[in-house]
Amino acid sequence: MEQLLHELAALIGPTHVLTDPADTEPHAVDWRGRYHGRPLAVALPGSTAEVAALVALCRDRGIAIVPQGGNTSTCGGATPDGSGRQLVVNLRRLRAVRRLDPDNNSLTVEAGLTLAEVQALAEGAGRLFPLSLASEGSCQIGGNLSTNAGGLAVLRYGTMRELTLGLEVVLPDGQVLDALRGLRKDTSGLDVKQLFIGAEGQLGLITAATLKLFPLPTARATAWVGVDSARTAIAWLAALQAAFGDRLTTFELISEVCQKLLDHHHPGQLPFVAPWALLIELSDSGETAALEERLVNWLSEQAMVDGVMAQSESERQRLWQLREALSETQKRDGPSIKHDIGVPTSMIPAFLEQCGQALKTAFPGVRIVAFGHAGDGNLHYNVSRTRPDPAALFDDEPAVNAIVYEWVDRFGGTLAAEHGVGQLKTPWLERYKDPAALALMRGIKQLLDPRGLMNPGKWLAP
């Protein structure tokens, strides 16, 4: 291994090959602290050419690679195993802006830029890159692509799959796939870039992407509204879409339990507590006052528990901060068994009712913290307090997961709507994913990576 480290240092520079445990430790544990590994080293290549040379070297030496971006995975998808023989390849030094083309509404960047930096680049050109996540200050574009991230504006703009025009990828044999064209229509064969979006680094390393930009909205109307039930909330969603079309950018659903957590950890900031809260945002061109008036008029005709409209940008930001604080607030409150699930939007109320009842029957006193992107059916469905002793919570994880995923499946849903599969959900994917789809995906893995060196131990492993 010492010879390999020397060769890596010759390729990318000795200061960019980390071997000291103090330097590698942050790269050896996932964001939630559930998965711990021991990498051979952490390599920090600075260009696509260096990534390609590094991958070719590892292929020749039979060394497994674990691609890593901002290391914000919640499923262990970017964590090495404990063997000390897997090389973490972190792409944070790939930071070039290759091309900003406002007339084409496109931006080509390397994979190491954070999502917040890409948003700022777009805004500086009078454009919008609409992907928005709570971790946007630390997650990187490469990781967003590898998990097909969605976030808060999927309802209008779609996931990373819909937001990507082109990719540059280093394949497992060291070849570079150059598919960075900024085209919106191309029928010249299969759209091969789609293979790598959502593959969690198991088919290659994404080094750059051409992303879709949109006109920067000049008007926004934002409201925090309380309703009496999830059924009412979903009925509102359909009515809002009918009234406002694609001006409806965000429709977030927040349970009473979530609101009480926010009120406890952020006292005085929550407008009110209702059975269910909705964060609704419209965006458009034109004047904010006109859009706000339309939303106020619509809301005035609805039955609601309570509601507030943001009267300024600072008030809008405060409402968004409450929504974005949910994950961290829940983490502060104690451990939970997390599920990033999706069901058809129309099924959300029935899922919440029936899955919740099944969990309460199995675990009296259980607490369910449910919130998420109701507009696209993605719920963050988190379970805690299955036992009096919080330390014993994860003893119940298999039984809790069995209940949750069974109800997800009954309602035609998915066990991984936004955060990927990683290590966490692999056994459940085997159970619930269509066998033909799994076989097809593994066939593609075998074709591209026959030695299984790209992010091994995750869900595409044979």
From TrEMBL:
Domain FAD-binding PCMH-type positions: 35-216
Cofactor: FAD
GO terms, biological process: respiratory electron transport chain
Keywords tagged on the record: FAD, Flavoprotein
InterPro entries xref list: FAD-bd_oxidored_4_C (IPR004113), FAD-bd_PCMH (IPR016166), FAD-bd_PCMH-like_sf (IPR036318), FAD-bd_PCMH_sub1 (IPR016167), FAD-bd_PCMH_sub2 (IPR016169), FAD-linked_Oxase-like_C (IPR016164), FAD-oxidored/transferase_4 (IPR051264), Oxid_FAD_bind_N (IPR006094)
Protein's UniProt keywords contain Disulfide bond: no
Pfam families: FAD-oxidase_C, FAD_binding_4
GO terms assigned for molecular function: catalytic activity; FAD binding
Similarity comment text for this entry: Belongs to the FAD-binding oxidoreductase/transferase type 4 family.
Identification of the protein by name: FAD/FMN-containing dehydrogenase
